[in-house]
Amino acid sequence: MWYFAWILGTLLACSFGVMTALALENSEKEKNPNSQ
């Protein structure tokens, strides 16, 4: 069942990357409210 752990780890890494990108986008919007 190594593939199950591999898929789980890959999904976790992808979701962590997406959450980090969204958090960075939010913090940039808060710093520059007049950007868009």
UniProtKB/TrEMBL annotation:
InterPro entries for this protein: Cyd_oper_YbgT, YbgT_YccB
Descriptive protein name: Cytochrome bd-I oxidase subunit CydX
Organism in which the protein naturally occurs: Rosenbergiella australiborealis
